Amino acid sequence: MNISNNTKIVLLALVSLVLASCQFLWEPASDLVEIGEIDQLIDQGRYQLAIQKCDEMIQQNPKDGLVFMLRAEAYSGLGDYQKSVEDCTKMIQLDPEKWDSIGYHLRSKVYRKWGQQKLAAQDFAGAMKAMIKFRSQFISNPERQGTDFDVLRRQYVVERAAAYACLGQFQKAIEDCDRAENLAPPQQKRALLKNDDGKSGDRFGIEHSLCVNRAFAYLGTKRYKNALDDLNKAISLDPKDGEPYYWRAKVYMKLGRPDDTDMKESEKLSPGMQDQFDLKVNERNFAAIHFEDRVYAFERLKNQ
Questions:
Q1: What is 132-193 written as a DSSP string?
Q2: Where are the domains of the chain?
Q3: How would CATH label the architecture of 1-141?
């Protein structure tokens, strides 16, 4: 089976994120080609065959958490939520230090799809807390020095801010975003604001993510003017991302200036993401926080 370029990109991104974050070391027994085939089967909706291949890999290596993650996704696709939850749980039990943030995040999504909202909220909070723990370990590690680690450290500060915001710890989120803003040296700031074509943009996505997450936190603390400033900047950095339009529509509503233009633009650019129970996942990356996660957190916090 040929692996599509998109699948290869997703797998390489997952490998890079996992190794760089030091949450765990990818077991050598994980066959990247086989993993890619299973990943593609899930994308194609061929869940039963994906499960069969996962079963074969688990027989060879019953401690490979990545395969349990894929099988959990496939079971969820079939609507067998009980088995999906069991695989998520097994994945976490194999090695909590490696898999708890990803396992809790995936299991939370399965519970939401299953209609088990209380359990989903508990796992979502567990995933956010685990992400904060792992990111904090990397951020504070004095041995990780150099330009590459500086860029990664800045990214992880922003990701920790996202987790804080999803837990409703908005001031900590704002402080982390401010810290990330100050971590970029002048030359890096200039690089971030230019794409390869020389036009205005955000090459690494860090600046854009910083603005979105801080705006989300500002919205939570009713600092609407600050939120608007960050959202306008995020849109200027990446006008094709639907999320900042969504939050700007929310801010305008809070200001008593409802306008459905931004919400329509958000739906056009990121269809379906506005639904807090939509299980679409950006690149199926459960090690990160995405648009639909913030929508879910926003609705959950609002109802508390």
A1: HHHHHHHHT-TT--SHHHHHHHHHHHHHHHHHHHHTT-HHHHHHHHHHHHHHS-HHHHHHHT
A2: 1-141, 143-271
A3: Alpha Horseshoe (1.25)
Dist. CA 248–CA 243, nearest whole Å: 9
Helix (H, G, I), strand (E, B) or coil at 52: helix
Distance CA(174)–CA(164), nearest Å, equals: 9
Q: Which architecture characterizes domain 143-271 according to CATH?
A: Alpha Horseshoe (1.25)
Cα–Cα dist 121/241, whole Å: 26
Q: For 197-211, what is each residue's pLDDT tens digit?
A: 444 445 558 899 999
Q: Read off the pLDDT of residues 54-109 as tens digits, 9 standing for 90 and up.
A: 999 999 999 999 999 999 999 999 999 999 999 999 999 998 888 889 999 999 99
Which residues, 6+ apart, have CB-to-CB distance to 260 below 8 Å?
Answer: 249
The closest of 235, 214, 209 to 225, measured between CA atoms, is: 214
**Which token pair is 214?**
């801080």
pTM of the model: 0.82
Residue 142, class by beta-carbon neighbours within 10 Å (0-12 exposed, 13-18 middle, 19+ buried)?
Answer: exposed
Inter-residue contact 107 to 75 (CB < 8 Å): no
Spatial distance between the Cα atoms of 294 and 234, rounded to a whole number of angstroms: 16
